[in-house]
Amino acid sequence: xxxxxxxxxxxxxxxxxxxxxxxxxxxxxxxxxxxxxxxxxxxxxxxxxxxxxxxxxxxxxxxxxxxxxxxxxxxxxxxxxxxxxxxxxxxxxxxxxxxxxxxxxxxxxxxxxxxxxxxxxxxxxxxxxxxxxxxxxxxxxxxxxxxxxxxxxxxxxxxxxxxxxxxxxxxxxxxxxxxxxxxxxxxxxxxxxxxxxxxxxxxxxxxxxxxxxxxxxxxxxxxxxxxxxxxxxxxxxxxxxxxxxxxxxxxxxxxxxxxxxxxxxxxxxxxxxxxxxxxxxxxxxxxxxxxxxxxxxxxxxxxxxxxxxxxxxxxxxxxxxxxxxxxxxxxxxxxxxxxxxxxxxxxxxxxxxxxxxxxxxxxxxxxxxxxxxxxxxxxxxxxxxxxxxxxxxxxxxxxxxxxxxxxxxxxxxxxxxxxxxxxxxxxxxxxxxxxxxxxxxxxxxxxxxxxxxxxxxxxxxxxxxxxxxxxxxxxxxxxxxxxxxxxxxxxxxxxxxx
Length: 498
Prior knowledge:
The chain is an all-alpha fold. The mean pLDDT is 83. It contains 19 helices and no strands. It catalyses: L-proline(in) + Na(+)(in) = L-proline(out) + Na(+)(out).
């Protein structure tokens, strides 16, 4: 009896069952489908935000990066932890208050248009286009993870793995919307947490001591002190800059919009940061013990990003292996479902509803949202069909795109009353354009791009911030009504933390 397949089948059935449950609870209106009616608990908010954030790169990309970059990967982890904490502190509370005040905004583009009292303005279209472009790319990274899982763990066709992953995620996302995504993320977050504690501990037990394990690791990667000696300022900043991306990730900050009370964000932060700290340490430990194990036992590992899969199959009983492989699927699908829903929200609420000439019922909008989920998933699957794609590289590109396009603007909108509508539009365009230029335009003689010098997040974030600031100062001040609304949000925030 193949226990691994049975475990995975039970996992798939659980996800679909949650989708059916959520479909009966929260899909009668667009607000329920897109934000769960703003009734999500802090526990579900925290693990949902974490699971949708970390995705397949946590269990595959980050451990694999240890093989390539060694201890320098730690600085990426440090940047992520600091950025996530700052996101909870600077963005979460005020965004939760502001989006409800701003005519119950359901999406990030909707909030931005309401923030400047430009209902269905150009900013909706511009931000929705940016979301759809980068999320289609981001979703493809998750599907690459699913394809690699099926190929490496079961010797199945890579393309088949991509489409199986897509089918299951699309099924429960179509059925239950945001509530289904949040509840499945919660379950998936628990699975990821347990797996990232279990795997490195069991792998470590194959060595006599920590010193022995490190000796085997250092046969392939430089020592920590050597990595510090070789670390450049630009290299350090590029790694830490991952943390800046949190302020602009629509699939993460939408969780803050849906929590049941702004006062519960503190609880969500404590749970979320504890979960994140343990799982990131577990991912790094998986990569480090993986390097040592491969060297000690002379294992041929074709793709370093599959070290977690390798450990799952080699070190555990098939029943446990099924659970651990389900953890990878959990990481992959939690992020894909969140990204599909946000993309669908933008297509439905920010493009279709705005430019449709008809009076649209809530049921009709929900159905359109479901169609959009399927369309975005199909396009992302097409991109993911190339098996040579690196999960971490795709994620880093999309992460930078969102971080530069929306990160500075979200901070300005919540912290500076002087920001203007034209400044906001200019910031989105320059941030996204800078990232795309940095990634794709070959500027050096050997055909390499500027991203080989410094992570595109840094120039994108700086240029977007400067553009917002300068254009806003050049424009006339916001109206008294906008300023009064900004001050009211700040007062509500102060009251909530007092």
